[in-house]
Amino acid sequence: MEIIGQLIDFILHLDRHLGHLIQQFGFWTYFILFFIIFLETGFVVTPFLPGDSLLFAAGAFAAIGALNPLALFIVLAAAAVLGDTVNYWIGHFVGPRVFYKERSRFFRREYLDRTHEFYEKYGAETIIIARFVPIIRTFAPFVAGIGRMNYARFLSYNVIGGLLWVALFVFGGYFFGNVPFIKRNFSLVIITIILISLMPALHEFWRQKRKKKLIPESKRSVPLSLELRESGDDFKKD
Question: 34-43: per-residue pLDDT in tens?
Answer without folding.
Answer: 999 999 999 9
